[in-house]
Write a structure and sequence with these properties.
The protein has about 290 residues and is an alpha/beta fold. It is about 35% helix and about 15% strand. It holds the Pfam family Acyltransferase.
Length: about 290
């Protein structure tokens, strides 16, 4: 039995048809385009480990952007603002040390697309469930991108995964994690589990909250990309391909680091990150990147 939480979201209760749908020709082109991008990544996956980690991350970023584009998903990246203060239980944030340490990117989790979205924004090493490594073709591609895998079924492996994440941060790599431990439909969020925040503390790395929001071309939430309950990857993929005007809005909040004397704990870090990501929708930000 999995030790990770399970959200109350279900396909029948949460997922709604898209406001606009793509025609059959557009859907066919998206399928063919996605197959082409995935197939084009196979040769890369065979030689990826020969490349320096940062260069590999940049190539993966371009590949992820291309895959999102052929699926008909527009990527928008905005800058958010942190207005959180501190207390004895939750130390006040200080400016992060710009040294060589990577940042722990922590985001809410809506879809199987989420790691792809984060990888399309910045070179990073996503944390993903080990089941993905066994997926045909895609598993090899994900592994080639530097993904760190976590075994959902074995709690005893968690300390080792935390060490792996801390090691990647110390080596200067950003690592993307989804600390809810499960997916929701995007209308609400579950609590952030604190385990992976320990990796940031151990490595002396800053934490950067990230908010992911799928919507249509206006501002209405889009639940089609959600991957919840007993949903299947194929069903979710079909909804994505059928949607027209799908946008994923990514809000990048400032990095948060803590003075050693502040007594930060993984729970306080998780609490601040969760409060930042789950706060009321921010005022409309200028779009920094649109693809």
């Amino acid at each position: 039995m999995s030790w990770l939480p399970v959200a109350a979201c279900t396909v029948g209760g949460c997922v709604r048809p898209p406001a606009r749908t793509a025609g059959p020709v557009r859907r066919t082109l998206r399928v063919l385009g996605a197959l082409g991008v995935v197939a084009g990544g196979v040769p890369w996956s065979l030689v990826a480990r020969r490349f320096e980690e940062r260069r590999r991350g940049r190539i993966t970023m371009r590949w992820a952007r291309l895959l999102l584009r052929v699926l008909g998903i527009r990527l928008e990246v905005a800058q958010g603002f942190s207005v959180l203060g501190g207390s004895a239980a939750s130390p006040a944030p200080v400016a992060p040390d710009p040294g060589t340490c990577g940042a722990l990117l922590v985001a809410n989790h809506v879809s199987w697309l989420d790691p792809l979205v984060v990888a399309a924004i910045t070179p990073c090493r996503p944390l993903a469930k080990s089941d993905i490594a066994r997926w045909p073709v895609l598993g090899r591609l994900v592994a080639a991108g530097g993904t760190i895998f976590i075994d959902r079924e074995r709690l005893s492996t968690l300390p080792g995964t935390v060490r792996d994440v801390a090691g990647a941060l110390r080596a200067g790599h950003d690592v993307a994690v989804f600390p809810e431990g499960t997916t929701t439909c995007g209308r609400a969020m579950g609590p952030f589990r604190p385990a992976m925040f320990q990796a940031a503390i151990d490595a002396g790395a800053p934490v950067r909250p990230v908010r992911l929001r799928f919507r249509d071309e206006g501002s209405d939430p889009a639940t089609g990309p959600a991957f919840v309950g007993d949903d299947t990857l194929l069903a979710s993929l079909r909804r994505v391909i059928a949607a027209r005007g799908l946008v994923v809005e990514v809000t990048m909040f400032p990095q948060v680091a803590y003075a050693p004397a502040g007594g930060a704990t993984r729970r306080s870090l998780a609490g601040i990150a969760h409060a930042t990501v789950s706060g009321d929708s921010p005022r409309r930000h200028d779009v920094l990147v649109a693809a």
